[in-house]
Write a structure and sequence with these properties.
By secondary structure, this protein is of the alpha/beta class. Helices cover about 35% and strands about 20% of the residues. It is built from 18 helices and 20 strands.
């Protein structure tokens, strides 16, 4: 008799978990090429439970002005190749496209300034390029240049939230061995401001790195939001020098070797929602039971597994993958794993709202590039703006310009108190100031994402580790999703597949 595994949550993490449990090869390289991948694994009956009326979570493509537009993420990073591989496995890899433009700007003192080249997640290894951008003042530039003197103590692993065993990159690049490497983890801003100065961090690093996570660097863990950078800083006195070493170590494809240059970002013709559609079709072909409108109201231990009480009835399962948001997982685990529930329930979340607008081409003169970022210190309601028709020409009808403005971040809940009409007017007012357009848009659409972004506070990795240790006492139950750390599609995909492999292996013992 087949064993039953229930996957709670139908975002990309849950969809990926269900697919691996149903016998598909993992898309994540570390799982696909390692001992975790077992051809012809155990026969599971997989049930995917989603409380919403659709699958995909924050991946959502809908028609706007006659074209398919993304109302959630519109691209993914390719550094983790799992999303590329998944699209190839699903037969839609040929429809992946690179942005038509990748340059962007940032608002500084009320004006748009192009971002300097060579940034590493908003951090500038080239101070000359930074000076030419005029994003920071002469005083701010001078303060950042002091970092080159390497006057401070070496950056310790513990201040970054790393264990001593995770410091190999910093050591290999000339980082010092820190005699005492214990203590609390610092916020990303605390680490960077002490080396580069507040102005540079607030006006350049925070809008990019903080904006990606809908938060602020003063309340984010650097090792979670920028793990490669965090590891590279260990043992160094100068952030700028450590970044230069990191840039040199990053492999660059050479035309002479015939290596293919992979774009940093990729999107999908017709929108990323096509990935969800292909995943759902694949799961249907594999016999996975797909249920929408199936909120899990309770999760209880049963004699040989678990009972899941849903809106559609009770499901008895041998194993469970919890790919729901942390606050949902916390509610379901409060009786069977109270320690894990407390840890997951303490993860704060931020809400965002996206405003998509369209104009006739002649009525909207956009700056060069794919959009702009807005530092928190500017005090604006817009946190960033994507020129969708410039970045993805397929997203706009001929003769039209389509723009998407992001609003809301951790600590700024102004969009929550506004109606859709009020939010659109506020966004239009700021766009008039920054771009000069005064023509009313042809159309507007507001998409709200409540509690959409988990906030990775300092100590987040330790919090998740404590939750996992507590869950180790439960049979065949694993966590997945962005609450673990990492909000991008590849990161979420990998957590779902890893959880599926763990549950599969535990049920196979």
């Amino acid at each position: 008799m087949s064993r039953v595994v229930a996957v709670v949550g139908g975002g990309v993490s849950g969809l990926a978990a269900a697919r691996v449990l149903a016998g598909a090869p993992p898309a994540s390289l570390e799982l696909r090429d390692g001992p975790a991948h077992q051809e012809g694994g155990p026969d599971f009956e997989v049930v995917l439970l989603e409380s919403d009326d659709r699958f995909g979570g924050k991946i959502l493509s809908r028609e706007f002005r006659g074209r398919s537009v993304d109302f959630g993420p519109d691209n993914f990073l390719t550094r983790n190749p799992s999303a590329n591989e998944l699209c190839d496995q699903l037969g839609i890899g040929d429809d992946l496209v690179a942005p038509a433009t990748s340059s962007a700007s940032v608002v500084a003192r009320g004006r748009l300034h192009p971002l300097p080249p060579g940034l590493i997640l908003g951090l500038p290894p080239d101070l000359v390029a930074l000076a030419r951008s005029r994003i920071v003042s002469g005083r701010g530039l001078a303060r950042a240049a002091l970092d080159l003197l390497a006057l401070g103590a070496p950056i310790s692993a513990s201040s970054l939230g790393l264990s001593p065993e995770e410091t190999a990159i910093g050591r290999a690049s000339g980082g010092a061995v820190v005699a005492s490497d214990t203590g609390p983890e610092w916020s990303a801003a605390s680490i960077l401001v002490s080396r580069l100065g507040r102005e540079l961090v607030e006006r350049l690093v925070d809008p990019l790195l903080g904006g990606i996570n809908a938060g602020g660097l003063d309340q984010l863990s650097l090792v979670v939001v920028a793990p490669q950078v965090a590891r590279a800083l260990v043992g160094h006195r100068s952030v700028t020098r450590a970044l230069r070493l990191l840039a040199r170590r990053t492999p660059k494809p050479s035309a002479s070797t015939g290596a293919k240059i992979r774009p940093f970002f990729l999107g999908m013709r017709g929108g990323l929602g096509r990935i969800v559609e292909a995943l759902v079709a694949d799961l249907q072909d594999r016999g996975v039971q797909l249920q929408t409108g199936a909120e899990v109201r309770a999760l209880r231990r049963a004699k040989n597994g678990y009972e899941l009480e849903t809106a559609n009835g009770t499901i008895v399962a041998d194993g469970v993958v919890l790919a729901a948001p942390g606050y949902v997982a916390a509610r379901l685990l409060v009786e069977s794993a109270p320690v894990a529930a407390a840890e997951l329930g303490s993860i704060p979340h931020s809400s965002v709202a996206l405003v998509t607008l369209a104009w006739p081409s002649g009525a909207m003169s956009l700056p060069q590039g794919s959009g702009f970022l807005v530092p928190r210190c500017e005090g604006r309601i817009i946190t960033g703006c994507t020129f969708l028709s410039a970045k993805w020409p397929h997203a706009a009808s001929a003769g039209e310009v389509v723009v998407r403005a992001s609003t809301g971040r951790y600590g700024d809940e102004r969009p929550l108190s506004m109606s859709d009409e009020e939010l659109v007017e506020a966004v239009l007012g700021e766009l008039r100031e920054l771009t000069g357009t005064s023509v009313p848009p042809l159309a507007s659409l507001v998409r709200r994402w409540p509690r959409a972004f988990p906030q990775y506070l300092p100590g987040h990795r330790r919090k998740i580790e404590r939750a996992r240790v507590a869950l180790g006492e439960l049979p065949a139950l694993e966590l997945a999703g962005p609450s673990l750390g990492g909000i991008g599609i590849p990161a979420c995909l990998t957590t779902g597949e890893r959880a599926a492999v763990e549950v599969r292996d535990r049920l196979s013992r």
